[in-house]
Write a structure and sequence with these properties.
This protein has about 500 residues and is α+β, with helices and mostly antiparallel strands. The protein folds into three domains: about 200 residues, Thrombin, subunit H, CATH 2.40.10; about 100 residues, Pdz3 Domain, CATH 2.30.42; about 90 residues, Roll (Pdz3 Domain), CATH 2.30.42. Helix content is about 15%, strand content about 30%. It contains eleven helices and 29 strands. A seven-stranded antiparallel sheet has the order 6-5-2-3-4-8-7.
Length: about 500
């Protein structure tokens, strides 16, 4: 076996020619698969799926207790001990330690196993980022006879868990890529990879779900869910349809035991292909940027905003001097479509914007309700910017799940004006205005809805709150069974805080 060091460089920029992909975007022939065996499909596809062996050097830290005199009595003297303890007869203090060989940091080789898919005859390979992340040695072994190659990393994108490798060869067996947007729940799929290092293995199942998001696996998610068995070593391997076309790159399992439990996930090939093409062309992935914070709509929020359903993404904050602000988007707008494609939730909107090149003009269909009026549909054109490197792709603006309550709306909540003291106490940025919550009765409906001390109430029933008196006045006049609050919260996370909407039960205490 031959190991080679992989240099993570901009090597790809020297060979900017795109790979010669084989595409077939026709819908699957769902009525033509009354088969008893998928052997012909596997014989055609299997040579395109490779084994990937990666290794990295791991430094082992010294015993953290070895320098503590108390614990040294139990662990014995360290090779670096200059205290004179443990001296032999005839040695002067410190002599023994000076004569002992000083310990060197220990290193070990950590090896991992994965799979990949050949997508071009000249050696471009798609795999999962976590298969090769941090590796300094990578080998690729072909399925037909196990011929091995040294692999170079063209590029990797952790937010989608996609990586592109390149091996030096010609006329390699390549896989045909399908249009993963045309997959339907119930379609037969086959997972091919090298689980546990036992050798190339095929498992069969169906598409259990599409468009899976908010799983906490990747920053950008649009997973295909399948019950085809996916196990350690399958990562980066192929998920193919009944015609043998690539529909996904296997990436993760949901398991409480660490083994197969019938819930596996694959990155759709359309997403993987988009990332791959940008990595090959530019050496990195640049993403579109609107400049908004988003929230999904609960049934209560949809009703309070007068929306026909929960579809869309609710804008909780439009940041100044961003593409969204320049286009005229406002807090409280609900984006329902992008370029005519329906938006179901905030995760889908984030993914669509991220996959669109900076500088692209996008047409947004929104619902906007102003001054308590029924929302009206508007069309806005925005020119996307480039996603800043320090922007958190996921955001931490989702409020806690709301619970039913039997108490008055804002009873039990004490608020105060925001001054220099409260800004310092609750770490409130100078740009945030409203009334700060100084205490919340744990038995109140506001507490049940998720209101916390340190939150800033910015709106009550879509009316602006500037002071504590505003909050009290608007709370007192609130009618209906629910009160809608816009709240800013300092998350303490990477994005430094954000705004979101919640509804609070407005029924009387019984």
């Amino acid at each position: 076996m031959v190991f080679a060091t992989v240099q993570f460089t901009s090597w790809a920029r020297e060979t900017n020619s795109p790979p010669q992909l084989k595409l077939d975007t026709a819908p699957i022939e769902r009525q033509a698969h009354g088969v008893t065996s998928y052997a012909p499909v596997i014989k055609h596809v299997a040579p395109s799926v490779v084994n990937i062996y990666s290794s990295r050097t791991v430094r082992q830290r010294d015993n953290p207790f070895s320098n503590d005199p108390f614990f040294r009595r139990f662990f014995g003297p360290d090779d670096n001990d200059d205290s004179g303890q443990g001296q032999g007869q005839g040695q002067t203090p410190g002599q023994g330690s000076r004569n002992r060989r000083r310990s060197q940091p220990r290193t070990e080789r950590s090896q991992s196993l994965g799979s990949g898919v050949i997508v071009s005859p000249d050696g471009y390979i798609l795999t999962a980022n976590h298969v090769v992340e941090g590796a300094d040695e990578i080998k690729v072994a072909l399925a037909n006879g196990g011929q091995e190659f040294t692999a170079k990393v063209i590029g990797a994108d952790a937010p989608t868990d996609v990586a592109v490798l390149k091996i030096s060869s010609k006329d390699l067996p390549i896989i045909t890529m399908a249009d993963s947007d045309k997959l339907e729940v119930g379609d037969v799929v086959l997972a091919i990879g090298n689980p546990f290092g036992v050798g190339q293995t095929v498992t069969m199942g169906i598409v259990s779900g599409t468009g899976r998001t908010a799983l906490g696996i990747n920053q950008y998610e649009d997973f295909i869910q399948t019950d085809a068995a996916i196990n350690p070593g399958n990562s980066g391997g192929a998920l193919v349809d009944a015609d043998g076309r690539l529909v996904g790159i296997n990436t993760a399992i949901f398991s409480e035991s660490g083994g197969y439990q019938g819930v596996g996930f694959a990155v759709p090939v359309n997403l993987a292909r988009s990332v791959m093409e940008r990595l090959i062309k530019f050496g990195k992935v640049t993403r579109g940027y609107l400049g908004v914070q988003l929230q999904n709509l609960s049934p209560d929020l949809a009703e309070e905003f007068g929306l026909p359903d929960q579809g869309g993404a609710l804008l909780t904050d439009v940041q100044a001097d961003t593409p969204a602000a320049k286009a005229g988007l406002k807090d409280g707008d609900v984006i329902r479509q992008v370029d005519g494609k329906k938006i179901t939730d905030r995760e889908q909107l984030r993914l669509m914007i991220s996959q669109t090149a900076p500088g692209t003009k996008v047409t947004l269909s929104i619902l906007r309700g102003e001054n308590g009026k029924k929302p009206t549909e508007k069309t806005i054109t925005a020119t996307l910017g480039t996603l800043p490197a320090d922007v958190n792709a996921r955001g931490d603006d989702t409020p806690e799940q709301q619970k039913d309550s039997k108490y008055d709306s804002l009873d039990g909540v004490e608020v105060a004006d925001i001054d220099s003291n409260t800004r310092q106490q609750y770490n409130i940025p100078s740009s945030v205005r409203g009334a700060v919550v100084t205490s919340v009765d744990p038995d109140s409906n506001s507490a049940d809805a998720g209101v916390r001390e340190g939150d800033v109430i910015q709106e009550i029933n879509r009316e602006t709150v500037r002071t504590a008196d505003d909050a009290v006045r608007l709370s007192d006049k609130a009618q209906g069974k629910r009160v809608t609050l816009k709240v800013w919260r300092g998350s303490g996370g990477r994005n430094g805080g954000g705004s979101f909407y919640i509804t609070v039960d407005n029924t009387k205490r019984k």
